[in-house]
Structures are given as C-alpha cells and as structure tokens.
Amino acid sequence: MSNRPAGHVARSTRRPDNRPHPETPRGAPRRTPARTFLRTADGVPVDAVYEPGPNRHDPSDLVFVVAHGFTGDADRPHVRRIAAAFARHGAVVTFSFRGHGASGGRSTVGDREVLDLAAAVAWARGFGHARVATVGFSMGGSVVLRHAALYAGDEEAGTDAVVSVSSPARWYYRGTAPMRRLHWLVMRPTGRLVGRYGLRTRIHHRDWDPVPLSPVEAVPRIAPTPLLVVHGDRDGYFPLDHPRMLAEAAGDHGELWLEPGMGHAENASDEALLHRIGDWAVAAAG
C-alpha cells in the first residue's frame, strides 16, 4: 500500500489507446440514471450509481461524488438520503468503497480507497460535467482530503471543490470509546468477523505499509482547490481538535464550520446542513 496512487484510475472505462470503452458514458445518452461496476487502478470492482441533477441539459453543471463512511455503502438509507439532498443542487454519484456492499476487495480503512474515489470521479466527469465536488463523511472525509492532494491538477480524476465532514485529522486515534471499538473491529480477527457478517464490511487483515499520508498532512497540498471542513461539536468519535487541526493546516484556502449540537457523519447531518453544503459546493466549484 502506497501513499501515491499509480496507474490509470479507472481502467475499465478506457482502452489503452485512450479511446472510450463502450460502457463509458462518453458517446452514450447523457444525463440518464446509470449503475455499473468501475475498475480501479489496482483492479478492484467498485459498485457506482449515477443520478442526473435538475440541470441535466447544462454541460457545465456540478456533479457531487459522495464518499460514505466506514461500514456504509451506496444502498444504505443514510447514503441515499445524502444523495437525495445533493440532487437538488446537481447530479450525484454514489459508490461503495472496496470491501463494502457489492464492491469487491477488502477495506483498507482509508488507504487504497483513494483509488475507488478517483475511479468514481473519472466516471462522473465522463457524463459531461465540467465541475466535480467530492463530499466525504468520516472515513470518506479523510479519503476526499487525500484524494484532492494526490490528484491535484488531474483533469480527469481531480476535483474542483472538497467537503470533508466528521473526518479525523490524524491516524491511529483511540481517544474515544467509539474509536477504541473501531480499532478492535479492524485489528482483531474476531472484530473482522463481526465486520464481515454483522456489518457487511470485509476488512483487510494487513497493516498499512507504508502508512499513508495523513489527512492533516494532505490538506496543505489541496490549495488552491476550495476546501470546506464540517464537524459537529458533539461528535463522539473525533473531538474538536481534529477539525481545528485541519482548518489550521488549510490556511486561507479552507473554511471551517463547527456545527452546534451535531454528532458524527451522515446520520448527524440534517437536511438544512446538507443544503448549505450543496449551496457552498455550487458556489465554490464555479
């Protein structure tokens, strides 16, 4: 596992001569709902869903690519609720990270998942959208930060605006009871069995080698892409020093929203917050 992604990000969508495969959105009727399995740069099939937004005939409109949290997937009710809210502001791509839902592979809990997001972004751009905003929650929040840093300047797999909700700032944090339980789930064989059969999440048994770029290390590399960090002041997983570290690392190109009374990630994100995020993304990605 490497800090730097290698190879093409969505090998199933292009031939070696760079012409589209038949299944790519280019050349097909644009802005119609679609579901397919993408192929990441390291060969993992990723289940992805495209839903056109309210401006399906405008080639410059925005597409949101939503990166769910650990143990989520594209069909979970809380992910569908997020997608429905953002669909009022633009088109939406949801997908299941590796090891989650119908996708293949096993979860690396935020490392190789940047390849899954890169494949989803490239697929989203294939529908003709000029602007992409990546929005991640919890584990997905850390992934959108690393993805934006590693793919900065990439016209196919890069992003035009980044929203990170309830993300950790640093790895291996065990300062709260929910995070200690999560580490047991990931690090112990019994925990991984619970993840597989109880939470529909298949977790890789190997440790990171090397340790990937941390979210707080990734943030300075995102500039000048607009960045929004959103965090609840009642988050039971990551206390407020995490978003404050991210905001400090972002400097002038980042914005921090500390939400009163909000808990953690998707389930704590109410409709009003989601629509404020949607409005911010439309303005920032422009």
From TrEMBL:
Keyword Calcium assigned: no
Pfam families: Abhydrolase_6
Coiled-coil regions, chain positions: none
Gene Ontology molecular function: any one: hydrolase activity
Chain intervals with Basic and acidic residues compositional bias: 14-24
Keyword field: Hydrolase
Annotated segments matching region Disordered: 1-34
Entry keyword annotation includes Hydrolase: yes
Entry's family note: Belongs to the AB hydrolase superfamily. FUS2 hydrolase family.
Name the UniProt record assigns to this protein: Alpha/beta hydrolase
Organism lineage string: Bacteria, Bacillati, Actinomycetota, Actinomycetes, Kitasatosporales
